[in-house]
Specification:
244 residues; alpha/beta; Immunoglobulin-like; six-stranded mixed beta sheet; 11 strands
């Protein structure tokens, strides 16, 4: 049984990253834990709107739970709900009973709505945490989405097999950032490990992509940053974790 304090620490990034990864795996495997986490998140938003959170937790909500449009919509929904519930009651005998029933129905709806949004977010994150796909002759492929696209913030893990010779990375771009050519530089702990240019965009499956090819022997396990530039100006940054 996971206690509420652990769920709050997970949501507000107040536990070590290794423990957060273990907790996330538990959530994917346990629907009951996922539902409890959704309720804890709803309670955090409720306390935030009421102004009842301590400073550290309030900063955590603002720094992590409000980092995407989806999360901000959840907060706006909670604030709108409170605005409705603050309206003065009509002088009717059955008002308290009706009000209690309405609050219960609305809160159940909030929990289910948040759960659906979380399920979509987890599905998107899970799709990014992928094994590299084999192509042929020791060539493997993986896709990356910039943190500037679709509110992405999770760092995808790419599991690279021992027999890999080359990793092909497909970098998703926004249509507004279409350029004739790009250059890409891959960094590990601030050290440049690979650079490739020129790279030209290609449209596949209704997505604008740039592909680069990296020798597997330069990819040690670790957290990488990839900078995509055009004309010497940064266009997008990508993050990935190599696991071998």
């Amino acid at each position: 049984m996971v206690n509420r304090e652990a769920m709050i620490a997970y949501l507000l990034h107040q536990m070590p990253e290794t423990e957060r990864l273990d907790f996330a795996e538990q959530c994917f495997a346990d629907p009951d834990l996922t539902a409890q986490l959704s309720i804890a998140e709803a309670e955090l938003f409720d306390a935030y709107v009421r102004g009842e959170l301590p400073r550290e937790q309030r900063e955590g909500v603002e720094g992590y739970l409000l980092s995407s449009d989806v999360q901000r919509r959840k907060l706006n929904f909670t604030a709108a709900l409170h605005a409705v519930l603050r309206r003065p009651p009509r002088p009717r005998v059955q008002w308290l009973t009706l009000c209690a029933a309405a609050i219960f129905v609305v809160l159940v709806g909030v929990v289910f709505w948040i759960e659906r949004e979380n399920r979509e977010l987890r599905s998107e994150i899970a799709s990014r945490e992928q094994n590299a796909r084999p192509i042929a002759g020791g060539v493997y492929s993986a896709s990356l989405i910039s943190s500037g696209l679709r509110g992405g913030s999770a760092v995808p893990s790419v599991v690279l097999p021992n027999d890999a010779r080359i990793l092909q990375l497909d970098l998703e771009l926004g249509e507004a950032e279409r350029r004739a050519r790009y250059s890409a530089t891959l960094f590990l702990a601030g050290r440049r490990v690979w650079q490739e240019e020129p790279l030209r965009p290609d449209t596949r499956a209704q997505a604008l992509l740039v592909s680069m090819w990296i020798p597997a022997d330069v990819l040690a396990p670790g957290n990488y940053t990839l900078a995509l530039e055009s004309g010497g100006n940064p266009v997008f940054y990508y993050s990935l974790k190599i696991v071998r």
